[in-house]
Amino acid sequence: MTDTPTLTFLGAAGTVTGSKYLIRANGRELLLDCGLFQGLKDLRLRNWSPPRFTPADLDAVVLSHAHIDHSGYLPVLARDGFRGPVFCTPGTQDLLRVLLLDAAKLQEEEAATANRYRYSKHHPALPLFGSEDAERALGLTDARRYGEPFAVTAGVRALFRRAGHILGAATVELDVGGTTVVFSGDLGRWSRPILRDPDLVRRADILLVESTYGDRTHPPDPAGELARVVRDAAGRGGALLIPAFAVGRAQELLWTLRQLEEAGRIPVLPVFLDSPMAIDVTDIYGRHPEDHDAEMGSLLAAHRRPLSPRQFTFVRTPQESKALNARQGPMIVISASGMATGGRILHHLKKRLPDAETTVLLAGFQAADTRGRKLRDGARELRIHGESVPVRATIETIDGLSAHADREGLLRWCAGFETAPRRVYVVHGEPEAARSLAEAIRTRFGWTVAVAEDGATVPLGT
């Protein structure tokens, strides 16, 4: 190892997935985020490749939040010998228990399905990791509260601040031998329901800022768009299927549907939350007041149910989920996964995409080559469980429900720095979004900024 502290971009550089940054300092190694790659096959295959570090040699992991593209590689680390602490916020710690175990179950089920239908090139198909690996990783988590500095390893201290993205999401400040490294994590949005706004950060020497929506601005009225989609879907007489991220997106959809019902802007339809993970997460959302905004806090204090539409049903068992396929008439089914890469939403899509009465609402970012992205791009058929499924349903998209800040939100957060960082690296964005945000930061603030290069190592010193 070199004496100069370094940062290596091992994921979420040139793409929005696989967030993973390796810091070497004082003879120690730590990971900032530990995410799985999702989307394009070439990216997914990287999950199976040996990492550019030895898991058993890592001293610690610091997580910005619980989304799988930021945390999902933890079971692989634990399986391969990592035994250090995984630092995160209390909300992230609770969510990880749900997300990592669910991810392991999906890995195991997908391998079993591939073996059953013989559509994998590998015989037998194996999961990337299993439930025992996930449990081993969960045993390493060490929760730390917002605003309270803590030691990570020799010569490195950390501090979490609210990022406003999902429950427990944090920006991360690291003091690495006197150099202040700040990582935005995934930044949320101002004045959105349920969660508090992102906290501003005053200074950084090295800044890593996400750019998921770095080249665009969100539409101004997502609730109005959702109301239109619900009314149109009800008019068609069929189901409204919403592939939704179980953490964050599902809860905001439930909140907004309840608000629209109370305002009389949509008909009251049966709403089914068909995702055991999203059900568990919705419960967790109610248990962390440190993340709640004022309205969410006051509604819970008044024993209201802000995340429950009027005709609301939790769908827990596989049998209950399959029974929804026989149900006719207007209804809303919210089910994971958000990019239709797996989970229960697949059997709903397989059943209902050929039906012209069906509406599918894509309510979040769709990574390249995912089924959600293919639907968004106008695919007329979709491959599900090894079969080609025709697409006759109406496909709708709402970008304004995103839990990510858009370009103006990212710039607003950057404006909170009282002095210019020495260097800024734009991460976690597709190439055009990252380049666009880098240029906007350079133009507006005059900062030294570059788009992070996958695999590159940069010094953290002066």
Question: What would you note in describing this structure?
Answer:
- The protein has 462 residues and is of the alpha/beta class.
- The protein folds into 2 domains: 6-216 and 403-459, Metallo-beta-lactamase, Chain A (4-Layer Sandwich), CATH 3.60.15.10; 222-397, 3-Layer(aba) Sandwich (Rossmann fold).
- 31% of the residues lie in helices and 21% in strands.
- The strands form 4 sheets. Strands 6-5-4-3-2-1-22 form a 7-stranded mixed sheet. Strands 7-8-9-10-11-20-21 form a 7-stranded mixed sheet, with helices on one face. A 6-stranded parallel sheet has the order 14-13-15-12-16-19, sandwiched between helices.
- Helix 4 runs antiparallel to helix 5 (131-138), helix 4 (90-117) runs antiparallel to helix 8 and helix 13 crosses helix 14.
From the structure above, extract its key features:
single chain, 462 residues, alpha/beta, Metallo-beta-lactamase, Chain A, Rossmann fold, 2 domains, 7-stranded mixed β-sheet, globular
Total number of distinct structural domains: 2
Q: What does the overall shape look like?
A: globular
**What is the number of helical segments per DSSP (H or I, 4+ residues)?**
14
Count of DSSP E strands? 22
* pLDDT < 50 stretches: none
Distance separating the two termini: 18 Å
CATH class of the largest domain: Alpha Beta
CATH homologous superfamily assignment of the largest domain: Ribonuclease Z/Hydroxyacylglutathione hydrolase-like
